[in-house]
Write a structure and sequence with these properties.
Two copies of one chain form a homodimer. Chain A is α+β, with helices and mostly antiparallel strands. In chain A, 19% of the residues lie in helices and 38% in strands. Chain A has a six-stranded mixed β-sheet. At the A-B interface, strand 1, strand 2, helix 1, helix 2 and strand 4 of A face strand 1, strand 2, helix 1, helix 2 and strand 4 of B.
């Protein structure tokens, strides 16, 4: 039963009646109220993610013109993460902290970092032709860059500029063991990065050498520019491409266009690896004349939209009016020649009008093709050329993907289809520009495919996804304490509890601080207007998801500090005044108390050091701070007693026999010893009657006590477990 | 039946078996395979959005530390749009085009734009205390700014810096007719934006005056800084706040903290409007001494987490251990005093441990409270103090929202609860930092609430949403041609078809160009290295969702051009070479052909003008261009014939009698007349034997023809409709 409640809503003086759907009760009642069909119900249970449920696949997709990566789940189609890649992303401080700025600087042609990226077709790293869940790669088409992301923490680790081309086709392609990440230029241009003489225009295929280095939880593989090279290519416009595997291993294939004609080209890139190189823009290049004997041009009968290598590596499947199945072995035997497609044709399969894309699944010799203008997806056998079945859609499908569809072992019963014209039927209006839409299609039945979900991606023009079995990726949940997350190495700027410090040389100030619930240490930083200041902060937490953020009011800086991470924020303190800084992540009930203050003394300031106004304190205020100080002393005494009792307990139970417990105790004792100076300070200020300073330093000492007590109690708990005692 | 297919997947040399869920067939089979309960099935049909379905509500939420706004739908919980507010967002060119940079510059304290924003609790504009769907407002806590967004196009229209405070509590609050948007500082500090003397620290409440100006599809309302003011506040730490309505209209309420005590304060802000002002930082300020007779301080018995005014305006509902229901009328009669909560207490309702938030729904006197530490949400009557029912959750709820819950007419049977600790149970791992989670809770039943959906938001620490009936917002789908979308006014830089031009004065180059499927005009722009270049582009499309994007390779610039929009991209052409520019939105099948080239001639270049290499063309190439030119001439002739036949037809049928048809015909004729110079050019170059230039200009002329023909055919179609003829 459709239950409506009516409400008189007064908007701009008009009484408008708006129904309120009452959706409780039974499945049938809800379906009736919401207008759902039985087909919808089936789709609903196929995609609904129950609490605690885990998606089967992780999808990654570039946000098109936002320069960031989206991570989402299949079949729930929920978006899990935004990751800065070619553009800044303040939520993780990407492009804001020194470490990520340095990373991006390496992608600068001339000391200007392009803060924009046009990214579409990504690639996952592969081992033996299968996705191995270690890295992802993206190409920035607009600014000619390549990015390597580590899937240990889903972060960008490297961005490099292409030294030959000033534009690229926005696709990254990897070889079967990720020896190379391959990019092609899109529009030819003179290579000298200077000339406007289009008579000198050329294209290039760039092979970025990947040095793999990974162990459990550490993906330190990187692109080695010095071992990378490019192959000169005549001035064709280039776009989609793929790489051989199995019998076609060693070949690189792509689409090329010139003078209204379309070609598939094939390059024996292993020949290029050992071919003679010349230096162009300080980069190794194989001249086309030196490799052309290993390049084939296959003229196609029609404009082509896609080329992909079949999973077992025997065929090239090309969308060009018909789907053309080309024989890779025959292509190989025609290297060095220009031929017509007929000479290497295995099958020509009529699919429908406007075929945009093809993909594969786990069924032997089965492929899928999207016939855009016919609003359908067709399943067919590329070995026999036989059509199996098709699904008619109420939208025009363009790019299609099956999880692991570009590997030697496509997986899954899902197919994702991009819908570039969703605005007409599928979406509420959110202004002149609309989100992107991907449809989830259930392909599990051998004879019938079903469109089951409409996913929205909140930027326009997002497409080119890749999906991987979720369980293939083994993400870490914390870094070793003091890690530069961009390099994976220990940061030289890390600090440990009790060793926080402020160093000054002339007008250069380095703050070595720590973050732990619920304190930023130091809590007061005093500098002079015009100083160049760096906050080097380390998150000391080991608890899962215990991220802290850091920002300084009006200074426009933001860092994200996941457990164990060290990052640095450098700025010129050119604005005088008192600027609160605080943790920007909800980290505990005391989150709002995780704050401090940056004192920027105005130029020409001659007064005393910052004393939080102590010099101007009234008698009443001084008395108040004295009282607070005395109360804090009591708490310090009590906390000290707790610590001592824990220490006694640990000693009595021979904690030193248990190495991990022993290490924790040592850690706790260390922390407190290092806090000694704060104890000295509060005693000193109390002696001088500076009660505010005395109170603040006592508060600081107490914070170290809390940290020490926390570690001590963890040690006690662990010891109890070892001793088999109840908690 | 759970159908599994097993696949041998070789990863790093190990054979791993991974099940593939086969999810086709019946609802029962799917439920069994996916482990769903009957409760899950009910939740699935409540949230599944069928093709073409429209959500009941639009939610908006700040992305926390990303400085952008997310728009999403309820109950589908799909994310529809990311909108740049305080941080740059390249997908719409926000922070990249001149118009949005100018907008952001107005939020700069000293010519530096903070490119970061900490944004949480937004507000929708209101009329008579109800959400009217015209504007949304956000506060940037970290950089002390306010933003106004127009919901006509879901874009940021205004960002201003707070002249008094250097930090704000990240909440925006609006008065019942959006007379003011109100912000409070969070941490007190000296106001002079210079001193570090914390003895001078103060807080402030800022009332930004909103001038409302809207008609169908145009929301031109803006904040008027000159009519805004702040109220000085003693150095309390301030956070959550709300504004009175109905009987409490004219009062502003908030939480204040000092020396370990918590207060609700109330200010008669209408008194402040007419109170004496002094100028601070060139801004009107009411001194606390001049208003304190209109301020009440109500000391609370415990730490407070939230204060909200009940929908009818009679009560303040405060989360402070118990939920305290305070009587607004009694508070009003205590203005000028400091009192204990007991003096104004209507009810004190024990809810559970750690009450974080309260909200309201359409039921009379009903409120909801989240008891964080007890993992439950309680429904209760705030008039009688009686508890109704509660839902036990498997997470700890913090902030809770009901659609239109802050208005005088809360709506909906949904409640959204923020879950800050979702990482433990609900989500797959995506590295050390996790997404944010909101749960959708069905509150439609009067006696039982049900948690039905777990939504992920792909940045950490996202909370503070507001929801509105979707149908209250009336978004536009295009701008009047040539609109500066940030001001809503006609852009002085707009261009129309056929009047594109390149203007140069010294080293300053202005390109006035147009975008229409599938051409960027002009297609060649030639400048000298070091020139300051601006591309002013207008999207001439009128079709829905026919957005074009624009970028220039390696120049890191990006603009988004929705139908009718004019925007400008300024840069220094300091990198010599030939740089393709192109449309970054998939706009039609010919999208990839929507491109052009920027020629930046190196410094000291003395050669001829750019001729795309014509000077170096071989005989064969020249012959090829000659042939292409001659073929293009034939096409031009054919297209001209079509245009002439349409013109004849229109004339014969007296098109001039129909004003709109007449206007279209005039438009078509105009376009072609303005293209005359391209015709002259191709003829000239043909005469000189410069076949490449001749071909390119002929191609350009042809593009104008196509546009003219398109307009002409639309005119014909319209005329046929008027004449009642079949198409």
């Amino acid at each position: 039963m459709k239950q409506l409640k009516w409400l008189a809503l007064t908007v701009l003086g008009l009484v408008v009646f708006v129904p309120r759907v009452k959706a409780q009760s039974t499945v049938d009642a809800v379906m009736k109220a919401r207008g759902l069909t039985d087909k919808d119900k089936l789709a609903a249970v196929k995609t609904f993610m129950p609490r605690g449920g885990r998606d089967e696949y992780f999808g990654i997709v570039g946000t098109g013109n936002s320069g960031t990566m989206i991570v989402y789940g299949v079949p729930s189609m929920r978006i899990y993460k935004y990751v800065g890649v070619f553009s800044p992303e303040p939520w993780q401080g990407y492009g804001y902290d020194d470490e990520s700025q340095l990373l991006l600087k390496k992608s600068s042609l001339d000391d200007r970092i392009p803060w924009y990226g046009d990214m579409r077709f990504p690639a996952y790293s592969e081992t033996n032709g299968d996705y191995d869940g270690k890295y992802a790669f993206f190409t920035d088409g607009a600014n000619a860059r390549v990015a390597l992301l580590g899937l240990d923490d889903f972060e960008t680790k490297q961005v490099l500029s292409n030294p030959i081309m000033n534009n690229l086709f926005p696709e990254a392609t990897v070889t079967p063991n990720t020896e190379y990440v391959i990019q092609t230029g899109q529009y030819p241009h003179p290579w000298d990065m200077r000339s406007t003489d289009m008579g000198q225009a050329k294209n290039a295929i760039t092979f970025w050498k990947v040095k793999r280095m990974e162990k459990e939880g550490e993906h330190k593989g990187r692109i080695i520019k010095e071992k990378s090279f490019a192959i000169e290519f005549p001035p064709y416009q280039l776009d989609y491409n793929d790489v051989g595997k199995g019998p076609s291993d060693g070949l690189f294939f792509g689409l090329a266009f010139k003078d209204g004609k379309a070609y598939v080209y094939a390059v024996d890139y292993k020949k290029a690896v050992s071919a003679k190189k010349t230096r162009v823009n300080d980069f190794d290049v194989v001249k086309f004349d030196d490799i052309k004997g290993s390049v084939a041009f296959i003229e196609l009968p029609a404009k082509a939209n896609m080329v992909k290598v079949s999973p077992e590596g025997k065929y090239l499947v090309v969308a060009a009016d018909n789907v053309l199945v080309l024989d890779a072995a025959k292509i190989k035997s025609n290297l060095g020649k220009s031929i017509k497609a007929d000479a290497v044709m295995h099958k020509s399969v009529p699919i429908g009008k406007g075929v945009v894309d093809v993909t594969f699944d786990y069924r032997k010799n089965i492929a899928y093709a999207s016939a855009h203008d016919d609003s359908k997806i067709v399943r067919f056998n590329y070995e026999t050329g036989a059509k199996k079945d098709e699904v008619k859609l109420d939208f025009k499908p363009s790019y299609i993907t099956v999880p692991q569809g570009n590997s030697m072992h496509p997986h899954s019963n899902y197919l994702i289809a991009v819908d570039k014209e969703a605005y007409l039927k599928n979406l509420p209006k959110t202004g002149p520009v609309r989100p992107s839409v991907q449809h989830l299609i259930d392909i599990s039945d051998d004879n019938e495919m079903t469109d089951i979900y409409t996913m929205t991606l909140p930027q326009a023009n997002v497409y080119g996804n890749e999906l991987i079995l979720r369980t293939t990726i083994k993400p870490i949940i914390r870094y070793p304490t003091g890690t530069n997350s961009r390099t994976g190495e220990p940061s030289p700027f890390r600090a440990v509890a009790g060793q926080e410090k402020i160093e000054r040389k002339g007008n250069r100030v380095h703050v070595f601080g720590t973050l732990i619930r619920s304190h930023i240490t130091p809590e007061i930083v005093e500098v002079n207007q015009g100083d160049i200041v760096t906050f080097h902060l380390t998150n000391l937490e080991r608890a899962e998801d215990e991220t802290h953020g850091f920002t300084i009011d009006t200074y426009g800086k933001h860092g994200s500090f996941e457990p164990g991470k060290t990052a640095s924020l450098t700025f010129v303190a050119d604005r005088a005044g008192a600027f609160p800084y605080y943790c920007t992540e909800f980290c505990s009930a005391l989150h709002l108390e995780m704050e401090g203050i940056l004192m920027v003394k105005p130029k020409g300031y001659k007064g005393p050091g910052t004393d939080l106004g102590a010099g101007k304190l009234s008698k009443e205020e001084l008395a108040k701070y004295k009282k607070q100080y005395e109360e804090k002393l009591k708490v310090i005494k009590q906390t000290g007693d707790v610590i001592n009792s824990v220490v006694d307990y640990l000693k009595k139970n021979h904690y030193e026999k248990y190495p991990y417990v022993k290490a924790l105790v040592q850690d706790a004792v260390d922390q407190l010893n290092k806090a000694k100076f704060t104890e000295d300070n509060y005693k000193k200020y109390a002696k001088e009657g500076k009660w505010k300073d005395a109170f603040l330093w006592a508060e600081q000492y107490f914070q170290y006590q809390v940290k020490a007590a926390d570690v001590g109690l963890r040690a006690k708990k662990l010891l109890d477990e070892k001793l088999g005692k109840e908690q």
